[in-house]
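Worked problem 6 (solution included).
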Amino acid sequence: MTSDVHRSRVLLVEDEFLICDMIAEVLLEHGFEVYAVANANDALEHLCCGLPCDILLTDINLPGGMDGTALAERARALRPGLPVVYASGSASRIEQFRAVLDSTFVAKPYDPEKLCTILTRMVAAA
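Solution. The predicted structure is:
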């Protein structure tokens, strides 16, 4: 059975495998389509190739020289208006990063229900 309803596509950028796997599973259970990558370069490759993405959910602390804030800036340059949700377990770092306009921050550990609600609302508003 196929559906005409568009499933929101989340580009999940998380370098910690267990967290990534858990969040991807929760998102899938809530009807999202999930593309998971472990670093900013892979996320940019996804976006540059024209692959679908309705919202970017990125950890702030990423390996490889580009953090989640720099990724969000580059993602917005490629896809203006792309909704962005940042995540971090370092509450002290929240005040230090430069967020792109109209983005949201979610603290780790995630509340799966809240996260899905935030993603759904941001995609609907975009």
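Discussion: The chain has four helices and five strands.
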